[in-house]
Amino acid sequence: MTAGLLRELHVPGRPLVLPNAWDADSARLVEEAGFPVVATSSVAVARSLGYGDGEQAPAAEMFAAAARIARAVSVPVTVDAESGYGLAPSELAERLLATGLAGCNLEDTDHPRGGLRDAAQQADRIAAVREAAGEDLVLNARVDVFLGASGAAGERALLPDALDRARRYLEAGADCVYPIHVRDPGVLRAFTEAVRPAAVNATYLPGGPGLADLAGLGVARISLGGGLWKATRTWLRGTLTALADGTLPY
User: Fold this and answer.
1) In the chain, what is the straight-line distance between the N-terminal and C-terminal CA atoms, in Å?
2) Residue 131 lies in a domain
3) Using CA atoms, how far apart are residues 200 and 219, in angstroms rounded to an integer?
C-alpha cells in the first residue's frame, strides 16, 4: 500500500518534493513539516555512519539506518540504494522490502569499476529487481550520464545517451527516471518531453531552476540529495567555530 501511495504522488507538473533525510530524527522532522514521503541521501547516511559515499559503507549498516528511519515515521520511505551494493537483484529487492521501504533509487554507476554500467546490463538489473519486488517497490532509475557534464553545451551533448538509458530503464519496469544534476532548463525540458508521460526526477540545485520552474518543466519528483545535510553541516561548523572563539552561538 505504501508503494502504491508513493507511486500515485509522482505527477508530472505537480512534483513530489523530497527533502532527503539521513537518520531517524531528521526523518521525523521531514514528516512533521508535512511532507508525505521521506527519502534518504546516500552521501548523508554514509557520512553520518563514518563512511564515504559511493558504496563505501557496508550494506548492512545502510540497511540498518534505513530500518531505523522507516520505524520512526508513518509515511512511505524511499531510499538511495546506490547501485545495489553488489547484491543480486532478487536479494536487493528482498532486503529493501524486509526493511519496510516503499521505494529506492538505483543508479547506473558501477562503483567498483568507477564508471557507468552498460545500459543494457543496467536495464536487465532493473527488470530483475522489478520481477522480484512486483509492484511493492517504486523504482527510481538514476541516469548518471550528466554527472560529468560541463555547462549547458556539455549537457546537450550527453542528452541522446541519457534518453537511450532512460527509455531502456522504463521499458525494464522503472517507475521514474532520474537524470541527476541536470542544471540547464532546456535540457531538462527536452528530457521530460522525450519520455512523457513517464515520471522524471530532478535535483533542486543552487543556481539551477527553482521549485516552481522545475514543476513547469514537467518533472514529477524533486530531490534535494545531500543538500539539507550539507546545509546542516555548514551551520554546525560555523557554530562550533564561534564556540571555539568563546562566543555563545545561540
Assistant:
1) 43
2) yes
3) 5
**Residue 214 half-sphere exposure, CB side, CA atoms within 13 Å?**
27
DSSP conformation letters of 126-138: HHHHHHHHTTSSE
**SS3 of 177, please?**
strand
Residue 193 located in a structural domain: yes
Quick check: is 249 in a domain?
no
Q: What is the pLDDT of residues 157-211, one digit of tens each?
A: 999 999 999 999 999 999 999 999 999 999 999 999 999 999 999 999 988 899 9
* Reported pTM: 0.95
Distances (CA, A) of 136 to 9, 85, 201, 217, 226: 15, 20, 19, 29, 26
Are residues 105 and 130 in contact, defined by beta-carbon separation less than 8 angstroms?
no
Place of cell 542528452: 159
Residue 205 falls inside a structural domain: yes
Host domain of residue 240 = 2-244
Per the structure, how many domains does the chain have? 1
Is omega for the bond preceding 197 within 30 degrees of 0, making it cis? yes
Alpha carbons 33 and 14: distance in angstroms, whole number: 18
The answer for residues whose C-beta is within 8 angstroms of residue 84's C-beta and 6 or more apart is 92, 106, 125, 129
CB contact burial 72-89 (16+ within 10 A = b; e otherwise): bbebbbbbbbbbbbebeb
Q: Tell me, what CATH number does 132's domain have?
A: 3.20.20.60
